Amino acid sequence: VQLQASGGGLVQAGGSLRLSCTASARTFSRFFMSWFRQAPGEQREFVAAYNWNGGSTYYADSVKGRFTISRDNAKNTVYLQMNNLKPEDTAVYYCAADSRLILSSIRYAEQYDYWGQGTQVTVSS
To answer: Could you tell me which residues are beta bridge partners of residue 124?
Structure first.
């Protein structure tokens, strides 16, 4: 599975961005597709996850109510709509996928086998 992330950029606080992650695999019925982010000097942290089997979504507390993860089946793409961005959202955002995860594992980066290349999001104050 190859993942291609895009959509990052520079935005002012309070603004919005939409990230996209397009996957090469054609069958995702057992996949979790997720977004993580990593700020300089920090560990990679969980942002949001989408369970392709059933459409359940999961969010980090820090982004709940501001970010929305969704999918487009026809395009094999997962989106992360980010609204009301804050300077502390500044990071490199990575998409990740795995077909063997259980729900208790989805927030841990080391559990994912497939990663996109990362896209920079910078929020100015």
So the answer is: 12
